[in-house]
Write the C-alpha coordinates for this entry.
Amino acid sequence: MSENNKSNWWIWKVFWILLGLTTVEVALGIFKVNGFLPHALVHDHFIGLKWLTHIFIILTLIKAAYIVMTFMHLGFEKKSLRWTILLPAFILIPYLLFIVLSEASHHFLMNG
Amino acid sequence: MEELENNNHGEAWKGGDRPFKSSYGKLMMWFFLITDALTFSAFLVSYGFFRYTAVEPVTEKSLWPVPEEVFSHFPFLTGEHPLLFVALMTFILIMSSVTMVLAVNYGHKMQKKKVVLWLSLTIIGGATFLGSQAWEWGHFIHGDKGAIQLNRNLEVVHIAKEDVIDGKDTMVLSSVYELMNADKYGHHDFSIDTVLNQLRERPSFGIRLANKDYKSNLETFEYFETSEPLEIILGAGLKKNEYGTQDFGDCFFFITGFHGFHVFSGVIILIVILINVIKGTYQRRGHYEMVEKVGLYWHFVDLVWVFVFTFFYLV
Protein backbone atom coordinates (compact mmCIF):
# COMPACT_ATOMS: atom_id res chain seq x y z
CA MET A 1 0.00 0.00 0.00
CA SER A 2 2.71 2.47 0.97
CA GLU A 3 4.56 1.69 -2.24
CA ASN A 4 1.44 2.48 -4.24
CA ASN A 5 0.97 5.76 -2.43
CA LYS A 6 4.58 6.73 -3.10
CA SER A 7 4.25 6.29 -6.85
CA ASN A 8 0.99 8.26 -6.85
CA TRP A 9 2.19 11.35 -5.00
CA TRP A 10 2.78 13.34 -8.20
CA ILE A 11 -0.86 12.87 -9.25
CA TRP A 12 -2.08 14.45 -6.03
CA LYS A 13 0.53 17.19 -6.29
CA VAL A 14 -0.81 18.17 -9.73
CA PHE A 15 -4.36 17.92 -8.37
CA TRP A 16 -3.59 20.41 -5.60
CA ILE A 17 -1.89 22.75 -8.07
CA LEU A 18 -4.91 22.66 -10.41
CA LEU A 19 -7.32 23.12 -7.51
CA GLY A 20 -5.26 26.02 -6.13
CA LEU A 21 -5.12 27.80 -9.50
CA THR A 22 -8.88 27.33 -9.99
CA THR A 23 -9.54 28.71 -6.51
CA VAL A 24 -7.42 31.77 -7.29
CA GLU A 25 -9.36 32.28 -10.54
CA VAL A 26 -12.75 31.98 -8.85
CA ALA A 27 -11.66 34.26 -6.00
CA LEU A 28 -10.49 36.90 -8.49
CA GLY A 29 -13.81 36.55 -10.36
CA ILE A 30 -15.85 37.02 -7.18
CA PHE A 31 -13.65 39.93 -6.01
CA LYS A 32 -14.24 41.53 -9.41
CA VAL A 33 -18.02 41.35 -8.91
CA ASN A 34 -17.80 42.73 -5.38
CA GLY A 35 -15.40 45.50 -6.40
CA PHE A 36 -12.53 44.40 -4.14
CA LEU A 37 -9.93 44.51 -6.90
CA PRO A 38 -7.75 47.56 -7.70
CA HIS A 39 -9.38 49.81 -10.27
CA ALA A 40 -6.45 49.54 -12.69
CA LEU A 41 -6.67 45.74 -12.81
CA VAL A 42 -10.30 45.74 -13.90
CA HIS A 43 -10.48 48.87 -16.06
CA ASP A 44 -7.06 49.45 -17.64
CA HIS A 45 -6.28 47.71 -20.89
CA PHE A 46 -3.09 46.24 -22.29
CA ILE A 47 -3.02 45.14 -25.94
CA GLY A 48 -6.82 45.23 -26.11
CA LEU A 49 -7.51 43.21 -22.96
CA LYS A 50 -8.00 44.10 -19.31
CA TRP A 51 -5.08 43.29 -17.03
CA LEU A 52 -7.34 40.90 -15.12
CA THR A 53 -8.08 39.05 -18.37
CA HIS A 54 -4.35 38.62 -18.94
CA ILE A 55 -4.03 37.12 -15.46
CA PHE A 56 -6.90 34.73 -16.17
CA ILE A 57 -5.34 33.65 -19.48
CA ILE A 58 -1.92 33.05 -17.91
CA LEU A 59 -3.44 30.98 -15.07
CA THR A 60 -5.46 29.00 -17.63
CA LEU A 61 -2.39 28.27 -19.73
CA ILE A 62 -0.50 27.06 -16.65
CA LYS A 63 -3.41 24.72 -15.82
CA ALA A 64 -3.54 23.50 -19.42
CA ALA A 65 0.21 22.84 -19.40
CA TYR A 66 -0.09 20.75 -16.23
CA ILE A 67 -2.97 18.71 -17.64
CA VAL A 68 -1.24 18.03 -20.96
CA MET A 69 2.26 17.46 -19.61
CA THR A 70 1.48 15.29 -16.59
CA PHE A 71 -2.07 13.87 -16.80
CA MET A 72 -1.82 13.23 -20.53
CA HIS A 73 1.78 12.16 -20.02
CA LEU A 74 3.07 14.25 -22.92
CA GLY A 75 5.97 15.54 -20.82
CA PHE A 76 7.30 11.99 -20.57
CA GLU A 77 6.91 11.09 -24.26
CA LYS A 78 9.70 11.25 -26.82
CA LYS A 79 10.72 14.79 -27.78
CA SER A 80 9.75 14.27 -31.42
CA LEU A 81 6.24 13.13 -30.45
CA ARG A 82 5.88 16.04 -28.04
CA TRP A 83 6.63 18.59 -30.73
CA THR A 84 4.56 16.79 -33.37
CA ILE A 85 1.55 17.30 -31.14
CA LEU A 86 2.31 20.75 -29.75
CA LEU A 87 3.61 22.57 -32.85
CA PRO A 88 0.39 22.47 -34.93
CA ALA A 89 -1.49 23.94 -31.96
CA PHE A 90 1.22 26.54 -31.27
CA ILE A 91 1.23 27.66 -34.92
CA LEU A 92 -2.42 27.36 -35.94
CA ILE A 93 -4.20 28.67 -32.85
CA PRO A 94 -2.27 31.99 -32.63
CA TYR A 95 -2.68 32.31 -36.41
CA LEU A 96 -6.45 31.84 -36.11
CA LEU A 97 -6.58 34.30 -33.21
CA PHE A 98 -4.63 36.88 -35.19
CA ILE A 99 -6.78 36.57 -38.33
CA VAL A 100 -10.16 36.53 -36.62
CA LEU A 101 -9.48 39.19 -34.01
CA SER A 102 -7.87 41.58 -36.48
CA GLU A 103 -10.95 41.10 -38.67
CA ALA A 104 -13.06 41.84 -35.59
CA SER A 105 -11.32 45.17 -35.07
CA HIS A 106 -11.78 45.97 -38.76
CA HIS A 107 -15.48 45.13 -38.40
CA PHE A 108 -15.62 47.36 -35.33
CA LEU A 109 -13.85 50.26 -37.09
CA MET A 110 -16.12 50.06 -40.15
CA ASN A 111 -19.25 50.16 -37.98
CA GLY A 112 -17.96 52.66 -35.46
CA MET B 1 13.26 -6.51 -37.08
CA GLU B 2 16.77 -5.15 -36.66
CA GLU B 3 17.71 -6.58 -39.99
CA LEU B 4 14.80 -4.81 -41.61
CA GLU B 5 15.89 -1.50 -40.13
CA ASN B 6 19.47 -1.83 -41.24
CA ASN B 7 18.77 -3.07 -44.72
CA ASN B 8 15.79 -1.06 -45.85
CA HIS B 9 16.17 2.32 -44.24
CA GLY B 10 19.87 2.98 -44.32
CA GLU B 11 21.78 5.05 -41.81
CA ALA B 12 19.46 8.04 -41.57
CA TRP B 13 16.50 6.11 -40.22
CA LYS B 14 16.95 5.29 -36.54
CA GLY B 15 13.34 5.07 -35.51
CA GLY B 16 12.70 1.39 -36.10
CA ASP B 17 9.07 0.46 -36.50
CA ARG B 18 8.04 2.80 -33.65
CA PRO B 19 9.77 6.12 -34.25
CA PHE B 20 7.73 7.91 -31.59
CA LYS B 21 8.19 5.10 -29.05
CA SER B 22 4.42 5.09 -28.70
CA SER B 23 1.83 2.60 -29.85
CA TYR B 24 -0.33 3.01 -32.94
CA GLY B 25 -3.52 3.43 -30.91
CA LYS B 26 -2.12 6.14 -28.66
CA LEU B 27 -0.68 8.05 -31.62
CA MET B 28 -4.01 7.98 -33.43
CA MET B 29 -5.78 9.22 -30.29
CA TRP B 30 -3.28 12.08 -30.10
CA PHE B 31 -3.80 13.00 -33.74
CA PHE B 32 -7.56 12.98 -33.24
CA LEU B 33 -7.15 15.20 -30.19
CA ILE B 34 -5.10 17.73 -32.19
CA THR B 35 -7.93 18.11 -34.70
CA ASP B 36 -10.47 18.33 -31.89
CA ALA B 37 -8.37 20.97 -30.13
CA LEU B 38 -8.33 23.01 -33.33
CA THR B 39 -12.12 22.67 -33.63
CA PHE B 40 -12.65 23.91 -30.09
CA SER B 41 -10.18 26.75 -30.56
CA ALA B 42 -12.12 27.82 -33.66
CA PHE B 43 -15.30 27.93 -31.55
CA LEU B 44 -13.68 29.92 -28.77
CA VAL B 45 -12.01 32.31 -31.20
CA SER B 46 -15.33 32.97 -32.92
CA TYR B 47 -16.83 33.57 -29.48
CA GLY B 48 -14.06 36.15 -29.05
CA PHE B 49 -15.00 37.67 -32.41
CA PHE B 50 -18.68 38.08 -31.45
CA ARG B 51 -17.79 39.51 -28.09
CA TYR B 52 -15.16 41.87 -29.46
CA THR B 53 -17.56 43.29 -32.07
CA ALA B 54 -20.47 43.74 -29.62
CA VAL B 55 -19.34 47.24 -28.70
CA GLU B 56 -21.25 50.50 -28.76
CA PRO B 57 -19.75 52.61 -31.58
CA VAL B 58 -19.01 55.98 -29.99
CA THR B 59 -18.69 55.24 -26.28
CA GLU B 60 -16.87 51.91 -26.81
CA LYS B 61 -18.90 50.36 -23.97
CA SER B 62 -19.43 46.61 -24.23
CA LEU B 63 -22.92 45.44 -25.20
CA TRP B 64 -22.08 41.87 -24.20
CA PRO B 65 -23.91 40.42 -21.16
CA VAL B 66 -21.95 40.24 -17.90
CA PRO B 67 -21.25 36.51 -17.24
CA GLU B 68 -21.24 36.91 -13.44
CA GLU B 69 -24.81 38.20 -13.60
CA VAL B 70 -26.02 35.42 -15.87
CA PHE B 71 -24.40 32.47 -14.10
CA SER B 72 -25.05 33.46 -10.51
CA HIS B 73 -27.22 30.70 -9.14
CA PHE B 74 -26.63 27.63 -7.08
CA PRO B 75 -29.05 24.72 -6.62
CA PHE B 76 -31.12 24.94 -3.40
CA LEU B 77 -29.69 28.35 -2.53
CA THR B 78 -31.47 31.65 -2.99
CA GLY B 79 -29.76 34.91 -3.89
CA GLU B 80 -26.77 35.65 -6.07
CA HIS B 81 -23.73 33.37 -5.96
CA PRO B 82 -21.66 34.33 -8.96
CA LEU B 83 -19.27 31.67 -10.31
CA LEU B 84 -19.83 29.26 -7.43
CA PHE B 85 -21.69 26.62 -9.41
CA VAL B 86 -19.30 26.58 -12.39
CA ALA B 87 -16.43 26.45 -9.91
CA LEU B 88 -18.02 23.31 -8.48
CA MET B 89 -18.41 21.86 -11.98
CA THR B 90 -14.75 22.61 -12.67
CA PHE B 91 -13.80 20.90 -9.43
CA ILE B 92 -15.85 17.81 -10.35
CA LEU B 93 -14.16 17.55 -13.75
CA ILE B 94 -10.64 18.02 -12.37
CA MET B 95 -11.41 15.42 -9.72
CA SER B 96 -12.58 12.97 -12.37
CA SER B 97 -9.37 13.61 -14.28
CA VAL B 98 -7.40 12.65 -11.17
CA THR B 99 -9.35 9.42 -10.71
CA MET B 100 -8.69 8.68 -14.40
CA VAL B 101 -4.91 9.08 -13.94
CA LEU B 102 -5.11 6.75 -10.95
CA ALA B 103 -6.99 4.17 -13.03
CA VAL B 104 -4.31 4.37 -15.76
CA ASN B 105 -1.60 4.13 -13.10
CA TYR B 106 -3.05 0.94 -11.57
CA GLY B 107 -3.52 -0.40 -15.09
CA HIS B 108 0.26 -0.21 -15.57
CA LYS B 109 0.60 -2.30 -12.40
CA MET B 110 -2.02 -4.79 -13.65
CA GLN B 111 -4.15 -4.29 -10.52
CA LYS B 112 -7.58 -5.01 -11.94
CA LYS B 113 -9.62 -4.25 -8.81
CA LYS B 114 -8.06 -0.82 -8.38
CA VAL B 115 -8.64 -0.03 -12.06
CA VAL B 116 -12.32 -0.96 -11.66
CA LEU B 117 -12.61 1.25 -8.56
CA TRP B 118 -11.02 4.38 -10.05
CA LEU B 119 -12.64 3.96 -13.46
CA SER B 120 -16.06 3.71 -11.76
CA LEU B 121 -15.36 6.89 -9.79
CA THR B 122 -14.37 8.62 -13.04
CA ILE B 123 -17.69 7.63 -14.58
CA ILE B 124 -19.56 8.94 -11.54
CA GLY B 125 -17.63 12.24 -11.81
CA GLY B 126 -18.48 12.54 -15.50
CA ALA B 127 -22.13 11.77 -14.91
CA THR B 128 -22.27 14.33 -12.08
CA PHE B 129 -20.77 16.93 -14.39
CA LEU B 130 -23.41 16.15 -17.03
CA GLY B 131 -26.16 16.48 -14.43
CA SER B 132 -24.79 19.84 -13.33
CA GLN B 133 -24.69 21.00 -16.91
CA ALA B 134 -28.29 19.92 -17.41
CA TRP B 135 -29.27 21.97 -14.35
CA GLU B 136 -27.38 24.96 -15.69
CA TRP B 137 -28.97 24.66 -19.13
CA GLY B 138 -32.39 24.39 -17.51
CA HIS B 139 -31.75 27.52 -15.50
CA PHE B 140 -30.35 29.36 -18.53
CA ILE B 141 -33.36 28.45 -20.67
CA HIS B 142 -35.93 29.29 -18.00
CA GLY B 143 -34.28 32.62 -17.32
CA ASP B 144 -33.91 34.70 -14.24
CA LYS B 145 -34.63 38.38 -14.68
CA GLY B 146 -36.56 38.79 -17.92
CA ALA B 147 -35.90 41.63 -20.33
CA ILE B 148 -37.49 44.00 -22.83
CA GLN B 149 -36.49 43.86 -26.47
CA LEU B 150 -36.41 47.18 -28.31
CA ASN B 151 -36.72 47.66 -32.05
CA ARG B 152 -33.46 49.61 -32.46
CA ASN B 153 -30.66 47.10 -33.13
CA LEU B 154 -32.83 44.59 -31.25
CA GLU B 155 -31.34 45.94 -28.04
CA VAL B 156 -32.22 43.95 -24.91
CA VAL B 157 -32.74 46.10 -21.80
CA HIS B 158 -33.25 44.98 -18.22
CA ILE B 159 -35.50 46.28 -15.49
CA ALA B 160 -33.72 48.33 -12.80
CA LYS B 161 -34.88 49.96 -9.60
CA GLU B 162 -33.81 52.75 -7.29
CA ASP B 163 -31.96 51.70 -4.20
CA VAL B 164 -29.90 53.26 -1.44
CA ILE B 165 -26.38 51.86 -1.09
CA ASP B 166 -24.08 53.35 1.57
CA GLY B 167 -26.46 56.30 1.98
CA LYS B 168 -26.34 57.14 -1.74
CA ASP B 169 -29.26 56.91 -4.14
CA THR B 170 -28.31 54.64 -7.00
CA MET B 171 -29.98 52.24 -9.39
CA VAL B 172 -29.50 48.50 -9.28
CA LEU B 173 -30.49 45.63 -11.51
CA SER B 174 -33.99 44.30 -10.83
CA SER B 175 -36.22 41.96 -12.80
CA VAL B 176 -39.47 41.81 -14.74
CA TYR B 177 -40.77 39.47 -12.03
CA GLU B 178 -40.01 41.97 -9.27
CA LEU B 179 -41.69 44.76 -11.24
CA MET B 180 -44.78 42.63 -11.84
CA ASN B 181 -44.78 41.15 -8.30
CA ALA B 182 -44.72 37.69 -9.89
CA ASP B 183 -43.06 34.44 -8.88
CA LYS B 184 -40.00 33.97 -11.06
CA TYR B 185 -40.24 30.18 -10.98
CA GLY B 186 -43.77 30.19 -12.43
CA HIS B 187 -44.65 30.27 -16.10
CA HIS B 188 -45.64 33.68 -17.33
CA ASP B 189 -46.45 35.35 -20.58
CA PHE B 190 -46.37 39.08 -19.93
CA SER B 191 -47.51 41.30 -22.77
CA ILE B 192 -45.38 44.36 -23.46
CA ASP B 193 -48.31 46.68 -22.64
CA THR B 194 -48.96 45.29 -19.16
CA VAL B 195 -45.27 45.63 -18.29
CA LEU B 196 -45.10 49.20 -19.63
CA ASN B 197 -48.23 50.12 -17.68
CA GLN B 198 -46.73 48.68 -14.51
CA LEU B 199 -43.52 50.59 -15.21
CA ARG B 200 -45.53 53.80 -15.50
CA GLU B 201 -47.28 53.14 -12.19
CA ARG B 202 -44.11 52.34 -10.25
CA PRO B 203 -41.78 55.36 -10.66
CA SER B 204 -38.98 53.80 -8.59
CA PHE B 205 -38.37 51.36 -11.44
CA GLY B 206 -36.35 52.15 -14.55
CA ILE B 207 -34.22 50.21 -17.03
CA ARG B 208 -30.61 49.29 -17.61
CA LEU B 209 -29.43 49.54 -21.22
CA ALA B 210 -27.31 46.94 -22.96
CA ASN B 211 -24.28 49.21 -22.42
CA LYS B 212 -24.98 48.95 -18.63
CA ASP B 213 -26.13 52.59 -18.27
CA TYR B 214 -29.11 53.05 -15.96
CA LYS B 215 -32.16 55.14 -16.87
CA SER B 216 -34.58 56.47 -14.27
CA ASN B 217 -38.31 56.06 -14.83
CA LEU B 218 -38.61 59.44 -16.59
CA GLU B 219 -35.54 58.83 -18.77
CA THR B 220 -36.81 55.36 -19.59
CA PHE B 221 -39.92 56.65 -21.33
CA GLU B 222 -37.86 59.31 -23.12
CA TYR B 223 -35.60 56.53 -24.37
CA PHE B 224 -38.60 54.47 -25.49
CA GLU B 225 -39.72 57.34 -27.74
CA THR B 226 -36.75 56.81 -30.05
CA SER B 227 -36.38 53.07 -29.47
CA GLU B 228 -39.72 51.34 -29.33
CA PRO B 229 -40.20 48.35 -26.97
CA LEU B 230 -41.23 45.28 -28.96
CA GLU B 231 -41.75 42.43 -26.54
CA ILE B 232 -40.89 40.87 -23.21
CA ILE B 233 -38.30 38.10 -23.33
CA LEU B 234 -38.31 35.51 -20.57
CA GLY B 235 -35.53 32.96 -20.66
CA ALA B 236 -33.38 31.95 -23.61
CA GLY B 237 -33.71 30.19 -26.93
CA LEU B 238 -31.66 30.14 -30.10
CA LYS B 239 -33.42 33.16 -31.66
CA LYS B 240 -33.47 35.48 -28.67
CA ASN B 241 -32.47 35.47 -25.05
CA GLU B 242 -33.12 37.70 -22.08
CA TYR B 243 -29.42 38.15 -21.30
CA GLY B 244 -28.58 40.33 -24.27
CA THR B 245 -27.33 39.86 -27.80
CA GLN B 246 -28.50 36.77 -29.67
CA ASP B 247 -24.89 35.67 -30.27
CA PHE B 248 -24.41 35.24 -26.54
CA GLY B 249 -27.15 32.62 -26.22
CA ASP B 250 -26.08 30.86 -29.42
CA CYS B 251 -22.45 30.66 -28.31
CA PHE B 252 -23.53 29.36 -24.92
CA PHE B 253 -25.67 26.58 -26.35
CA PHE B 254 -23.18 25.68 -29.05
CA ILE B 255 -19.90 25.69 -27.13
CA THR B 256 -21.06 24.26 -23.80
CA GLY B 257 -23.29 21.88 -25.74
CA PHE B 258 -20.43 20.62 -27.90
CA HIS B 259 -18.27 20.20 -24.81
CA GLY B 260 -21.12 18.47 -22.97
CA PHE B 261 -21.52 16.10 -25.89
CA HIS B 262 -17.82 15.24 -25.57
CA VAL B 263 -18.33 14.52 -21.88
CA PHE B 264 -21.36 12.40 -22.72
CA SER B 265 -19.53 10.31 -25.31
CA GLY B 266 -16.59 10.09 -22.90
CA VAL B 267 -18.84 8.62 -20.22
CA ILE B 268 -20.26 6.09 -22.71
CA ILE B 269 -16.77 5.01 -23.82
CA LEU B 270 -15.64 4.77 -20.18
CA ILE B 271 -18.60 2.50 -19.40
CA VAL B 272 -17.72 0.22 -22.34
CA ILE B 273 -14.08 0.06 -21.20
CA LEU B 274 -15.14 -0.57 -17.59
CA ILE B 275 -17.20 -3.57 -18.72
CA ASN B 276 -14.15 -4.91 -20.57
CA VAL B 277 -11.96 -4.39 -17.51
CA ILE B 278 -14.45 -6.25 -15.31
CA LYS B 279 -14.63 -9.08 -17.85
CA GLY B 280 -10.83 -9.30 -17.65
CA THR B 281 -10.21 -8.57 -21.34
CA TYR B 282 -7.14 -6.39 -20.67
CA GLN B 283 -5.81 -8.64 -17.92
CA ARG B 284 -5.72 -11.45 -20.51
CA ARG B 285 -4.27 -9.15 -23.15
CA GLY B 286 -1.43 -8.38 -20.76
CA HIS B 287 -1.75 -4.61 -20.79
CA TYR B 288 -4.29 -1.87 -20.01
CA GLU B 289 -3.41 0.40 -22.92
CA MET B 290 -7.08 0.84 -23.82
CA VAL B 291 -7.65 2.50 -20.43
CA GLU B 292 -4.74 4.80 -21.22
CA LYS B 293 -6.24 5.80 -24.60
CA VAL B 294 -9.63 6.62 -23.10
CA GLY B 295 -7.71 8.46 -20.39
CA LEU B 296 -6.15 10.72 -23.03
CA TYR B 297 -9.60 11.55 -24.38
CA TRP B 298 -10.98 12.16 -20.90
CA HIS B 299 -8.16 14.55 -19.94
CA PHE B 300 -8.72 16.38 -23.19
CA VAL B 301 -12.35 16.96 -22.22
CA ASP B 302 -11.10 18.39 -18.92
CA LEU B 303 -8.58 20.53 -20.81
CA VAL B 304 -11.28 22.03 -23.03
CA TRP B 305 -13.41 22.81 -19.98
CA VAL B 306 -10.51 24.73 -18.44
CA PHE B 307 -10.61 27.06 -21.45
CA VAL B 308 -14.42 27.23 -21.67
CA PHE B 309 -14.51 28.07 -17.96
CA THR B 310 -12.08 30.95 -18.42
CA PHE B 311 -13.48 32.49 -21.58
CA PHE B 312 -17.17 31.92 -20.90
CA TYR B 313 -17.52 32.43 -17.19
CA LEU B 314 -14.50 34.32 -15.87
CA VAL B 315 -13.47 36.89 -18.46
DSSP finds four helices and two strands in chain A.
